[in-house]
Design a protein that fits this description.
The longest helix has 11 residues, at 2-12. The chain is 7% helix and 38% strand. It is mostly beta strands. 36% of the residues are buried. The protein has 2 domains: 2-192, Glucose Permease (Domain IIA) (Distorted Sandwich); 205-320, Sandwich (Immunoglobulin-like). Residues 1-18 have low confidence and may be disordered. It has helices at 2-12, 72-77, 218-223; strands spanning 36-39, 65-68, 80-82, 87-93, 114-121, 124-131, 143-144, 149-152, 163-170, 173-175, 205-212, 230-232, 237-247, 252-258, 264-270, 275-285, 295-305, 308-320.
C-alpha cells in the first residue's frame, strides 16, 4: 500500500509530457443500457471484499474492472473493445477459444485469454482481457489513439460470462482507476478518478425482462434468445420475468403488468441469498373467459434494496385476438 501511494505521488507530480492517462470507456456500448460494470477492483487488503464505494461489487483479489454484456446474443452481435487511452501496443494474443473455462477446461497460464497490452508512457499500462477469438486487430508496435478498436468482447480465458476485464498499472503496480490513491477512504471522491467521465457506481441492476406464455429456461434468458412481443388474447396465463445481477439477500424484485381496461398485476419476489446473476418470474392467470383485454401492455421490473429502487426496466407488449 505504501509503495503504491508513493508511486502515485510521483506520477501525479510528473511533468506535463508524462501525465497520468485519463481513461475513456473501453467498450462501444451504452453503459447501463447495453453493457454494465459487473465487478470493480477489490480494495480490501485482506480476505474481505470492498470496492471504491464501500460496496461489495467485486471479489477477493480482483485487480480490474469487468465491463460485461447482458447476454450471449449481445456478444454474438459484436461489441468493440476500444483503447481507453493513447499509447503503443506492447503485446497481443489471439486464437484462444471462447467458452473453454465455462465448459470446464483448464486455462492455467492463459487466464487473460485473447488480450492486448498498451503502454501509455511514464510507466502506465492498460491490459484488455477475454476478447473474442479471431477478433484482435492490433499487434505489438502499433500506435493507437483513445477509441481505437482493439477487438471484440468475448469469452476467452478464465471467463464465465461475456465481458472485458480492464486492468490499469503503474510501474507494474495495479491501480484502481476509480480511486487511484490506495489510502483514500470510501466512498471515493469522483474527482480523483482517472476516467474522463467517471462511470456512475451501480452495485446491482436489471439486465432484461420479458412476458410470455411460459417461463423461459434460465439458459435461454442468459443467452438472450429472441421472443415474441405479441401474445394471444386467449392465453390461459402470462408469465412476467426479470433478469439481473448483483443482488443481496433481502433485495426485492417487484414485477408489474398493466394493460387496457384498467388491467393490473403485481408480484414481489424476495431474494433469499446473494447472487451474481438472478432470474425470477411470476404468472398472471387469464382475467375472464373472454380472455385478456386486447391492446398494449406495459411490463415493469424494479429492483429494490432497503425499500428504494436501485434499477428499473420497462417493456411494451401487445395482446391480440
Amino acid at each position: 500500500m505504501r509503495r503504491l501511494a508513493a508511486v502515485l505521488a510521483l506520477a501525479l507530480a510528473a511533468p506535463a509530457g508524462a501525465q497520468v492517462p485519463r481513461l475513456a470507456l473501453p467498450l462501444a456500448c451504452a453503459l447501463g443500457e447495453t453493457c454494465y460494470i459487473r465487478h470493480y477492483p477489490d480494495r480490501d487488503p485482506g480476505a474481505g471484499v470492498r470496492d471504491h464505494a464501500c460496496g461489495t461489487a467485486s471479489y477477493d483479489g480482483h485487480d480490474g474492472t469487468d465491463f460485461a454484456l447482458p447476454t450471449l446474443s449481445a456478444m454474438a452481435a459484436g461489441v468493440s473493445v476500444l483503447a481507453a487511452a493513447p499509447g503503443t501496443v506492447t503485446a497481443s494474443r489471439d486464437g484462444e477459444p471462447d467458452g473453454d473455462f465455462a465448459a470446464g477446461a483448464a486455462v492455467a497460464g492463459r487466464e487473460c485469454g485473447n488480450g492486448v497490452m498498451i503502454d501509455h508512457g511514464a510507466g502506465w499500462q492498460s491490459q484488455y482481457c477475454h476478447l473474442a477469438s479471431g477478433s484482435v486487430m492490433v499487434a505489438p508496435g502499433d500506435r493507437v489513439a483513445a477509441g481505437t478498436t482493439l477487438g471484440r468482447v468475448g469469452l476467452s480465458g478464465k471467463s464465465e460470462f461475456p465481458h472485458l476485464h480492464l486492468t490499469l498499472r503503474h510501474n507494474g503496480v495495479t491501480v484502481d482507476p476509480f480511486a487511484p490513491d490506495p489510502a483514500a477512504t470510501c466512498p471515493a471522491d469522483a474527482a480523483a478518478a482517472l476516467w474522463q467521465l467517471p462511470p456512475p457506481y451501480q452495485p446491482a441492476g436489471l439486465l432484461d425482462l420479458g412476458l410470455g406464455l411460459t417461463a423461459p429456461e434460465y439458459a435461454s434468458v442468459k443467452a438472450g434468445a429472441a421472443r415474441a412481443n405479441v401474445l394471444p388474447a386467449k392465453a390461459p396465463q402470462l408469465i412476467l420475468w426479470g433478469y439481473g445481477w448483483g443482488v443481496r439477500e433481502g433485495d426485492v424484485l417487484a414485477l408489474t403488468l398493466t394493460g387496457p381496461k384498467g388491467y393490473s398485476f403485481a408480484h414481489e419476489a424476495r431474494i433469499t441469498r446473494d447472487q451474481a446473476l438472478f432470474y425470477r418470474y411470476a404468472g398472471a392467470r387469464i382475467p375472464s373467459p373472454a380472455g385478456w383485454p386486447q391492446g398494449s401492455y406495459t411490463a415493469t421490473a424494479r429492483l429494490l434494496r432497503a425499500g428504494s429502487a436501485i434499477d428499473t426496466r420497462q417493456a411494451q407488449f401487445r395482446v391480440e385476438g
